[in-house]
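User: Could you check the structure of this?
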Amino acid sequence: MALKIEQTVVLEASPERVWALLTDPREVASCLPGAAITEQVDDRTWRGTMSVKVGPVTTKYRGTIGFERLDASRWEADVVGQGQDVKGRGGAALRMQSRLQPAGSGTEVRVTFEVSITGLLAQLGRGMIEGVSAQTFRQFVGALQQRLAGGPAPESPPESLDALALGARAMGQAVKRFLGGESDKA
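Assistant: Sure, the predicted structure tokens are below.
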């Protein structure tokens, strides 16, 4: 299954600060739910792990990630990665392009992910994978904003990335708002 996901977020920090954080794989991993850098291979490549729970399935990937292109003068980075499920139940490949630009007093970050998933997770369906991807990105942005504000990397594990539990929680909140007469607008 191949997915293309595009996300844009504005962070309250200068492009230079955001660039420094986003081009440090250990910092990025500390903000990404389930991710860890285990070894630096060379100045552009790292080995690591990533755990993901989608519906009833939890899987852990082991692989590499590296910078294919870094252009600090334009704040553009291209990253490639690949991983294999540690139990041999599939794999994943990633190509990500990041672009930064000033946005008022902050920085707009545009990210395009092209992900190819094989094996067990690919069988669970595009909608479920996209839901978990969106939740992972929200958690990553929250942790990234915390780091940019001078806070520490999250020490406790992030909330579950189980798409079924996230959907049930969102439905429960919507029902509670409806029954309580609260507006659904945030």
